[in-house]
Specification:
The chain is an alpha/beta fold. Helices cover 39% and strands 10% of the residues. It has one domain: Collagenase (Catalytic Domain). The chain has a 5-stranded mixed beta sheet. The protein starts with a helix and ends in a 17-residue tail after the last helix. The structure holds zinc ion. The site of zinc ion has 5 residues, from α6.
Length: 271
């Protein structure tokens, strides 16, 4: 069953790769309709309004994910529950989600093909190992670096779509574990039920040297773990670790897609 669901996504991914080299899709302009009595256009859709929840404003954030340009992947909202954070930690986590959203939105705005985005070029320039999940549903015979980057982006999209389709909040929780930026359970790739739940660590959240942009990279990193991607069990001093897709993706977020210029600030902790 799992394979059949995945296969649908695979088939469209593979066919997209075959035809995507000259796309010119841009997002359609929003028609500005008549204003309602509240001053907002009629038909205004509020962030994450489709979710049923009892979360207070300080316990939630709404991540808006633009359409990929394909009707298969419309614009969606992901309601994120922030669990067990102090007020100041909450601010940093919300900023990290915002920074992540900017990065993702820029990728979609640049091109209808994620392969032609700055993020993809950053991955292409920096990745040389673990380009696929350890166990992947993507067929061996179609694997190459371009397909790997396309599949990687699609897999993160699948996480967001799982939450949006099922109206299940994605949970970002806090952890007191020392020596890490964040952590997440390893999941599997394809269009499945792997959620995007992860934890961020209190110590670096409380340390001003670790910025919200650094944590935006941690979000990307942990979400790749949720889709089955891995890296060597070493650390940032190991070039192979740096060049694994999961780690490089986080670095691309943190450096706004130019990792070479980001070598300031404290050493990143394990992720
Ligand atoms: Zn990791």
């Amino acid at each position: 069953m799992q394979f059949r669901t995945s296969y649908k996504g695979l088939a469209s991914a593979i066919s997209f790769l075959a035809i995507s080299s000259c796309g010119s899709q841009v997002s359609a302009p929003q028609a500005s309709g008549p204003l309602s009595l509240t001053g907002f256009p009629q038909g205004t859709v509020w962030p994450c309004e489709g979710y049923y929840h009892a979360l207070k404003a300080e316990q939630r954030e709404c991540l808006r994910i633009p359409s990929t340009g394909s009707e298969l992947h419309p614009a969606i909202d992901v309601l994120i529950e922030l669990r067990d954070f102090s007020p100041s930690q909450t601010v940093k986590v919300k900023e990290a989600i915002y920074e992540f959203g900017l990065h993702w939105e820029a990728m979609r705005a640049e091109s209808s093909s994620p392969n032609d985005s700055s993020f993809a070029r950053c991955l292409d320039a920096n990745v040389n190992n673990r380009m696929w999940p350890t166990v992947s549903s993507f067929p061996e015979e179609h694997r190459n670096k371009r397909a790997a980057i396309f599949w990687a982006v699609l897999n993160i999209q699948y996480i967001f779509e799982y939450h949006a389709r099922n109206k299940i909040p994605l949970v970002i929780a806090g952890t007191s574990r020392e020596g890490i930026m964040g952590e997440a359970y390893s999941g599997s790739d394809g269009e499945n039920t792997a959620n995007g739940d992860l934890r961020l660590a209190y110590s670096p959240l409380d340390d001003a040297r670790y910025t919200s942009l650094m944590f935006a990279g941690t979000l990307m990193h942990e979400w790749f773990h949720r889709k089955g991607y891995d890296h060597p069990d070493t650390g940032y001093e190991d070039t192979e670790y740096l060049a694994s897709l999961t780690v490089a993706a986080g670095s691309c977020v943190r450096s706004r897609n130019v990792p070479g210029i980001m070598l300031t600030g404290p050493a990143l902790l394990d992720e």
